[in-house]
Design brief:
single chain; 2 domains
């Protein structure tokens, strides 16, 4: 019977921790700081800090990132021998570390792969490892796909419709610092998806550009021109055979000299009833993340009482192996475990300030003024994800069937 890797990792790390406890006790006490260990053994501060941090971590799996690499640990073992510690204690510590390395090779092939196994098994508990791997993915994807962005922005607005009993939606979509890494890249920035409902009857909600200059232009790309970089980036629209429309940037300059800000805004009227239609009814607002970005900034503005003061649930669905697009391809086994959470910032536009986005409040105010919606009546829900994985659909979901929360 195969031994569970967590059990063996925990056992080997715990054994190494016990040996280090005895080493530090022999040096003068278990409370030694990293700096004290560095001076006593003649080690650099970083290695000494890792050893003390490893010894003090009560969760063996969380301690894995603090186990030094083989070359660094050999330096520490040699220093222990030279410092006058008993040969028997140094030998036991060496054996404990060797056992840890053997476990890493047996279950993962190497130490780096073991760190990934441990982090993947306990998402959110090893934040530094998670961020390192997501940052590496960003760099690799930016190279592979030939495009990257500083920030992907998605804003959703929910407001009562002019017709009682229904809700209007509006959105802002786009990128800050979108740049090509290859001059021939023509990258999609928006996709208007054409879904089927439960009766497999096609439906498509009419979309109206928020920018007043575009109101009279049919099927236009709804750029928010005052908030795009100048000159206005060239964007073209392609209509696919299934009815979906895709807006994409054209080929052009690479790097920061060709970087651009592209933002679009649309108003969707009478999208859904403002009340429960059936058991387990919900309203979902999703952002498709397909572009390598340093940051995803996803805000949802909910007008006072529209969702009954409920809080949203967050779900991140992989679209890597989906044969059809979200939301039809979002079973639970496609969920990705991320450590980020949706934050309720409170009510009113001033709550939405963001140091990461230039002129963000001006942008939001422009949209709300154009729509004639009272900026003071919106609750703001925010999700930010550094180096988000791709391709995914990030969803904020409000369960309409749940009892309304007290205001």
């Amino acid at each position: 019977m195969a031994v569970d890797f967590k059990t063996e990792v925990q056992s080997s790390v715990s054994r190494l921790q016990e040996c280090l406890d005895q080493v530090f006790a022999a040096m003068g006490g278990p409370g030694l700081s990293g700096a004290e260990v560095a001076r006593a053994l003649g080690l650099d501060n970083k290695l000494a800090w890792k050893l003390t941090r490893l010894a003090r971590e009560t969760d063996a799996l969380k301690a894995v990132p603090f186990v030094p690499g083989e070359a660094a640990m050999q330096k520490a073992l040699d220093a222990m021998s030279s410092s006058g510690l008993s040969a028997e204690l140094v030998t036991r510590t060496t054996d404990a570390f060797t056992r840890f390395v053997d476990v890493a090779i047996h279950h993962a092939g190497n130490r780096t792969a073991l760190d990934l196994l441990v982090a993947a098994d306990r998402p959110g508990t090893l934040r530094a490892t998670e961020m390192e791997q997501r940052r590496n993915s960003f760099v690799g994807n930016a190279y592979t796909w030939g495009v990257q962005a500083e920030v992907q922005l998605r804003c959703e607005f929910i407001h009562p419709s002019a017709e009682p009993g229904f809700l209007d939606f509006a959105n802002i979509r786009g990128f800050y610092g979108l740049q090509r890494n290859r001059s021939d890249v023509q990258w999609p920035i928006n996709r208007a998806r054409f879904f089927l409902d439960s009766n497999e009857v096609a439906w498509k909600i009419p979309r109206y550009p928020i920018d007043p200059q575009l109101d009279a232009e049919p099927d236009t790309i709804p750029l928010l021109r005052d908030f795009c970089s100048q000159p206005i980036p060239e964007v073209r629209r392609t209509v696919e055979p299934n009815g979906n429309s895709v807006d994409h940037i054209t080929a052009g300059a690479v790097g920061k000299t060709g970087a651009m800000t592209i933002l679009t805004g649309e108003h969707l009227r009478r999208v859904r009833p403002d009340h429960e239609q059936e058991p387990d009814d919900y309203s979902a607002h999703a952002c498709a993340v397909h572009t390598p970005s340093r940051l995803l900034h996803f805000d949802t503005f909910v007008y006072d009482g529209c969702y009954g003061n409920r809080s949203p649930k967050l779900a991140v669905f992989s679209e890597l192996t989906a044969t059809v697009a979200y939301p039809l391809s979002s079973p639970d086994h496609m969920l990705l475990p991320l450590s980020e959470k949706v934050e309720h910032l409170g009510q009113g536009l001033r709550r939405a300030r963001s140091s990461a986005l230039p002129n963000y409040l001006d942008l939001i105010r422009h949209v709300l003024d154009r729509l004639g919606w009272d900026e003071s009546r919106f609750d703001v829900y925010r999700l930010t994800i550094e180096y988000p994985p791709i391709p995914v659909a990030v969803e904020m979901r409000w369960d309409i069937s749940e009892p309304k929360a007290e205001s």
